[in-house]
Amino acid sequence: MNRLLGRRARFLAATTATAGVVLVAGCTSSGSGGSAGKASGGVQVVKAGQLTTCTHLPYPPFQSEINGKVQGFDVSLIDLVAKDLGVKQQILDTPFENFKTGAFLNSGQCDLAAAGMTITPERKKNVDFSDPYFDATQAVLVDKKSGISSLADVKAKGKKLGAQAQTTGEDYAKKQGYDPISFESSDAVINGLRTGQVQAVVIDYPVVQGWLKDKANADAFKVVDNLNTGEQYGFTVKKGNEKLRAAINKAIKGAKADGTYKKLYEQWIGPYNPSVASPSAS
Prior knowledge:
The protein is an alpha/beta fold.
């Protein structure tokens, strides 16, 4: 279900977190689209004057297009990195499968990837992760009319389970003996639930929190399980890119120290509990 590498993708030029993101056109096969350069601190960037971020849209509340601008928790955090480096963030929408392999980092099309991505040993073989910036759990969201009250009920009652392709939620479901229907994006997952293609989905709880802020969704769906899988999100850079990795870690640490992290968390995700929401650096 993931988009093919050769399909046209959207470039989204981002300014600072307060100014938002502006849509511009581009193609995934065009490389960095300009000459490489250096940012503050000697950090090498694939295109002079900007920090190019690979992501996969939509994935609210971390990144999604709102009123024509790509916004979200991840976008706001990486805006802080870009500000420290004296450049502006630009976002490239790419297939999620490339985050596992680091393909767009290795080809020089992006400086980093930010996509609500769980840190795993398998992924560490291909990319270098920043310090964890978010603790995540998996939620089981169901149609209120389904009669499902737990993940086990899905199988016991012969219902269909869905998950986003290439994600740890899908991996978790498979490890539990399920054969989930795969959807390309988080929006496609919720649409599959809404249209009855599936009666339950396994997906990151913060995403569910965002969905349930919509009254129509809250009236139709409910969370029946919250699965603590010990997952943490990290941003990724090309293997060996220690200067950029250090710059990202510095921005995360600074945001937690000065209260910016808390402010952004509450803006995009919900009530902030430091013991749960703000993982220590690893």
